[in-house]
Amino acid sequence: MKMIKFYSSRNLRIVKGEGQYVWDDKGSKYLDLHAGHGVAFLGHNNKTVVEYLERQMSQIMTLTTAFDTPIREEMLRELDKVKTGDLDNVFLLNSGTEAVELALKTARKITGRKKVIAFKNSFHGRTFGSLAVTWNKKYREPFEPLPGPVEFLEFNNVEELKKIDESTGAVIVEPVQGEGGVIPATEEFMKELRRVTQEKGVLLIVDEVQAGFGRTGKVWAHQHFGITPDIMTAGKAIGGGFPVSATFMPDWIAEKLEEGDHGTTYGGNPMAAAAVTASVKVLLENNVPQQAWEKGQMFMRMLKESLSEFKSVREVRGLGLMIGVDLRLNPGKAIKVMQDNGVLSIKAGVTTIRFLAPFMINREDMEWTLNALRKGITETEGKISSS
Ligand SMILES: *Cc1c(COP(=O)(O)O)cnc(C)c1O
C-alpha cells in the first residue's frame, strides 16, 4: 500500500517528539515550528495531555454523546473557564473542516438564507462546504459546483462590508488568516464586521481553528478586537495533539437546533474529551496565552532586526506566536534550507514562511531559527542572482 500524495514529501522520517522538538530516525533534533500545522502548540507529548489520554484509554475509548460519561462532564467544566461571551454550547467533531461544516449548516438553519460571505485569502477546510468558503482557486475549482452562493470580499477592507445585506445568512472570517499568509485582521475591520452583521441579522462565524487556543496571546484571537462571534469554530491545538475540533454557539442559536440536524460517529468521544480537558488545564495553569504574547513580541522583534538587511524580505507580521515572514520570492528553497539546518516551518499563501511555534519556545530556539532563516534566504537570493 502507498499513501496518496496530497502532500509533497519533506523527506524526513520523524520518530519522536517532545516539547518544541522532534527527532528523526538518525537521531537528529529539529525545532518544530511546523508543529503539525500548529496542532502541537502545547508541545509534543505534553505530560498532562498524555496522562489524561492514558488514563482514559484504560477506562473507555468510545462512547457517543447519547450516553453521559464523567470525562465529558469534566471537559465541559474546563471549557467554561475559557468561554467567550455567551457561547455556552459546544459540539465536538474531529477536524477543523467538520467544525466549519456544522457552523455553516447552523447558519443556514437559523437564518434560512443561503448566501455566505467569506474573504479573499481565507482558508476554512477541504470538505465541500468549507471548501466553498475557501478562497484559493487551486483547491476549489476542480470540485465545482460547490454549495453556495458564496461571495468573497476583500479582507481588512471596511468599505467592502457595505456589501453585507439581508440576503446573507452568514459571514465567516479568520481573526488571523493562517493558510492565506498569516494576516491579522484589524480591530477596525472586526468591529465594523460585528456591527454590520448584527444590524443585518447575519450570523458571524469566527473560525479560530488555527488562531485560537492561546496562540495569538489571548485564549481566542477575536478577544483582541473586543467582539463576540455568533458561532465559533476551534480545532488544531485544542486537543494538545489529539484530533478534535469544536463548534461553539450561544443558547439562542443552540435552542433552535433539533435532534438529527447534525451528528457524528466519533465526535466527542472520551479520548477527545480527555485531550481537551487536559489541554485547557495546561493552557490555564501555564498562562499559555500570556507566554505566547510575550514570546511572540520578542520573536517578531528579533526577526525584524535580523532580517532588515535582506532585500527579499517584504514583511514580518503576525499576532503572538502566529508569525509570518513574507518574502519577495518563493519561500520553498528557504524552508528546505531551514529544515537542513534543523528548523521545521511551513509555507503560507504564495510567498510567506509561517512559524507556528509551540508555546515553550525559548530565546535560544529563536536564535537557532534566525540563523537557519538567514542561511535560507541568503541561499535563495544567491541562487536567483546567479541564474
Ligand atoms: C486548518 C484549518 C481548517 C481545517 O482544519 P482541518 O482539521 O484540516 O479540517 C479550518 N479553518 C482554519 C482557519 C484552519 O487553519
TrEMBL record:
Pathway per the UniProt entry: Amino-acid biosynthesis; L-lysine biosynthesis via AAA pathway; L-lysine from L-alpha-aminoadipate (Thermus route): step 4/5; Amino-acid biosynthesis; L-arginine biosynthesis
Residue(s) carrying N6-(pyridoxal phosphate)lysine: K236
Binding site for substrate: R126, T264
Gene Ontology molecular function, alphabetical: identical protein binding; pyridoxal phosphate binding; transaminase activity
Keyword Amino-acid biosynthesis found: yes
Reactions catalysed: [amino-group carrier protein]-C-terminal-gamma-(L-ornithyl)-L-glutamate + 2-oxoglutarate = [amino-group carrier protein]-C-terminal-gamma-(L-glutamyl-5-semialdehyde)-L-glutamate + L-glutamate; [amino-group carrier protein]-C-terminal-gamma-(L-lysyl)-L-glutamate + 2-oxoglutarate = [amino-group carrier protein]-C-terminal-N-(1-carboxy-5-oxopentan-1-yl)-L-glutamine + L-glutamate
Essential cofactor(s): pyridoxal 5'-phosphate
GO cellular component: cytoplasm
Cofactor annotation comment: Binds 1 pyridoxal phosphate per subunit.
InterPro entries: AcOrn/SuccOrn_fam (IPR004636), Aminotrans_3 (IPR005814), Aminotrans_3_PPA_site (IPR049704), Class-III_PLP-dep_AT (IPR050103), Class-III_PLP-Dep_Atrans_LysJ (IPR053458), LysJ (IPR037537), PyrdxlP-dep_Trfase (IPR015424), PyrdxlP-dep_Trfase_major (IPR015421)
UniProt-listed GO biological process terms: L-arginine biosynthetic process via ornithine; lysine biosynthetic process via aminoadipic acid
Protein residues bound to pyridoxal 5'-phosphate: G96, T97, F123, D207, E208, V209, Q210, T265
Listed EC numbers: 2.6.1.118, 2.6.1.124
Main localization, broad class: cytoplasm
Pfam families: Aminotran_3
Keywords per UniProt: Amino-acid biosynthesis, Aminotransferase, Arginine biosynthesis, Cytoplasm, Lysine biosynthesis, Pyridoxal phosphate, Transferase
Cellular compartment(s): Cytoplasm
Protein role: Involved in both the arginine and lysine biosynthetic pathways.
Subunit composition and interactions: Homodimer.
Protein family (similarity comment): Belongs to the class-III pyridoxal-phosphate-dependent aminotransferase family. LysJ subfamily.
HAMAP family found in the cross-reference section: LysJ_aminotrans_3 (MF_02084)
Protein name stated in the entry: [LysW]-aminoadipate semialdehyde/glutamate semialdehyde transaminase
